[in-house]
Amino acid sequence: MKKITPHKIWDLGLPMVGLVVWFLYLPLIFLGEANGANLEVSFLQIFLMLMVVLGVGLVFIENKFAKLSEVVIKNKFLMLFGVFVLWNWLSLIWNANFLRGFLACGIISLVFAVTVLMSVLVKDKKALLRKMAKWFLIGAVVSCVFAIWQMVGEAIGLSTMVTFLPANYQSALFGFARPTAFAQEPQFFANLLIIAILLVLGGAVLGNKIFDDKIFGIKQKRFQMPLIMLFGICLTFATSRGAFLALILGLIIVIVTALRANFFLRRLVVCVVSMIIGVLLLGFFAQINHRDDISGAQAMSKWVNQMTLGKISLVKQDPNLYYITDSDVSVKCQVSSVKCQPDNEGDGYVEASTNERMGGNEMAIRAWMEHPILGIGIGGSGQYRYENYGEPNNRSINYNWYLDILSELGIVGLLLFGGMIFFIVRKVRGVALAIVVAILGQWMFFAGYPNSLPCLVLLTFLFEKEKSPKENR
User: Fold this and answer.
1) What was the pLDDT predicted at 203?
2) Peptide bond preceding 27: is omega within 30 degrees of 0, i.e. cis?
């Protein structure tokens, strides 16, 4: 029996980050709320902390302090990352919400620590990424199975105590549930799904070796088409416009830089077909759902209306039939008998969703213009809006991470973050570049270190990907 050493535990545990990133919200340790911040610790955060503790212990045991400092000093990306982290901590001095800012600094410091330790302790970084990609796809399958359980459970009327589906994403609005899997919101689940889709659409990832092994005697390449189908259906279920846009950006990079046309086309067709099937399944779940009176056709129209920013409505309104709204109850009525407000049965909540995001972005720009150099301090947006812009509470957030960094860390913080992104984009190629572009596209639609933690981890790990012309074939 081989001796188990701390380094072997590290080597086994680090690739499993690819699996653990899917557990962004569940399971969760919730300690309460304070000053506009949720005091909670996710399984992902606990796992990263354990890896940091183990990694620091290995640096002590193997006496690699000299290498640690050398790696950070000579690596421009890590240098910028370190300065960016320090700037976050420094901004606590002028931050209006110290607790929220302190928690955010802790998260970004955790990612930085893991990245530095990986650079020091991992010898074969390509092998690490291949193992991590496999674990990531396993996590994607597990999450998709759980998401389908949420969809089915909601459709047949099971309690949320069984489906673990947040109340905001039940079927009342669209007629079907929007699954979250182990994430907090459907969008965060979808953001990871598009990375999984790009991994499989690439056919063979990170050196054409991820699908070379066998599972139960079956070549892993045979799993590619079913995986694309599964991921595409679940991405459709999530109903996230930002995720679809990010996927399109990633696909453009793959088409232009990475793959032979015939190699890619079959997988792309399967991906499109899976999304069509996903929409049909949404209609089916809405039809069998007896919690509301939304039909399957109306549910599919709501999905299309939502994803097209209200430009397309498949279900036309009967001109003689309207709805009268009394509090939260809608009652059908005739124009001839009661004066009612028209309501398009096919619409989702496009206007409200868009207005909320645009309003948040406008306030972020206003805050930056008032503090252009230093920003208002990390994690301080909610408190600043509450004190200056009449927000009802101090819990509000930004919906664009670039504007979030600009408003909270000023032009200094945005330049530091932009420099980090520059060095990553310059180094990666092929499918890895497509994943980076997709992640950068996602950040136009949500913000915050807790929400961005999985993508931050994946992005910084991809920085260690070496260029290789063979990987673009």
Assistant:
1) 53
2) yes
* pTM of the full structure: 0.86
Residue 50 neighbours by CB distance under 10 Å: 12
pLDDT, position 260: 54
* C-alpha closest to that of 400 among 359, 340, 431: 359
Residue 315's pLDDT is 60
Confidence of residue 352 (pLDDT cuts 50, 70, 90): low
Q: Please list, in sequence order, all residues whose beta carbon lies within 8 angstroms of the beta carbon of residue 437, skipping any fewer than 6 positions away.
A: 249, 250, 252, 253, 425
Nearest to 6 by CA among 48, 54, 56, 49: 54
CB 299 within 8 A of CB 176: yes
Other Cβ atoms within 10 Å of 167 Cβ, number: 7
Residues pairing with 41 in the sheet: 29
Q: Which residues contact 395 (CB under 8 A, 6 or more apart)?
A: 36, 382
pLDDT digits (tens, 9 = 90+) for 121-173: 988 888 888 888 889 999 999 999 999 999 999 999 999 999 999 988 998 88
Question: In sequence order, what are the residues at sequence separation of 6 or more whose Cβ sits closer than 8 angstroms to the Cβ of residue 212?
Answer: 204, 220
CB within 8 Å of 242: residues ≥ 6 apart: 187, 190, 191, 441, 442, 444, 445, 446
Nearest to 462 by CA among 231, 252, 198, 266: 198
| Cβ atoms of residues 183 and 165 within 8 Å | no
pLDDT tens-digit readout, 361-392: 888 899 999 999 999 999 988 888 888 888 87
> 215 forms bridges with which residues in the sheet?
218
- Long-range Cβ contacts of 361-370 (<8 Å, 24+ apart): 361/398, 361/399, 361/400, 361/403, 363/389, 364/398, 364/400, 364/403, 364/404, 364/406, 364/407, 365/403, 365/406, 365/407, 367/407, 368/403, 368/406, 368/407, 368/410
Radius of gyration over every alpha carbon of the chain, rounded to an integer in angstroms: 24
Average pLDDT, the chain: 82
- The answer to whether the beta carbons of residues 201 and 268 sit under 8 Å apart is yes
